[in-house]
Amino acid sequence: MKNVTLGLVTLVVLASLAVTASAAPAHHIVFGGGTYVLLPSTPEFTGTMIFSALQIGPGNNARGYFINTDRYIGQPRQNWGGNILYLKTEGKNAAMAGVITHSTLTEGCRAGQGFILFVKEGCPDQVGYGCTNTLEGAIHEVDIGRNPPYLTLTRGNVKVV
């Protein structure tokens, strides 16, 4: 009898979790990373990135991170990254905005500035990124869809769920 009661309690709990999950708003997840060549004409300049973001709460609020490493052959690596705070998705495409928290770049993106990251899940997967002066500026770029040039991942992948 205890096994039957335990089985019924388990079914009731699972059923209530299923109802709760189906009533909850959809939250998108975007993650991935890989290696790219900046331009086909400059194979000596490559980069590697990794990112992950989860849409939270109402609207496009998100939590996540983005890390990018640029490499010129024969030069030291340059790293920069930050916190993803804004996420929009459309099908298998995603656009994110956030704040740069660290940077070793000698030119370009600096800590405290905003950044944008656009990704396309496809064959091949693609990424595009850039910097703005502020987080508000980055969110504006995402909202109007002004995406940077896309780079094709030569290794790695992107998932937009």
Describe the structure.
The chain is of the alpha+beta class and 161 residues long. The protein has one domain. Helix content is 20%, strand content 53%. The chain contains two helices and eight strands; from the N terminus they run αβββββββαβ. The protein has an eight-stranded antiparallel barrel. Strand 1 and strand 2 form a beta hairpin.
Q: Strand order across the biggest sheet?
A: 1-2-3-4-5-6-7-8
Assign an overall shape: globular
Over all CA atoms, what is the radius of gyration?
Answer: 20 Å
Provide the structure class. alpha+beta
Assembly context of the chains:
single chain
Strand % is: over 45%
Give average pLDDT, whole number. Answer: 83
Distance between the termini: 43 Å
Helix content: 10-25%
Q: How many E strands?
A: 8
Comma- or semicolon-separated keywords:
161 residues; globular; alpha+beta; disordered N terminus; 8 strands; eight-stranded antiparallel beta barrel
Topology summary:
Blueprint: H1 2-23, E1 29-39, E2 42-55, E3 61-72, E4 78-90, E5 93-103, E6 114-120, E7 126-132, H2 135-144, E8 151-160
Antiparallel strand pairs: 1-2, 1-8, 2-3, 3-4, 4-5, 5-6, 6-7, 7-8
Would you kindly provide a brief summary of this structure?
With 161 residues, the chain is α+β, with helices and mostly antiparallel strands.
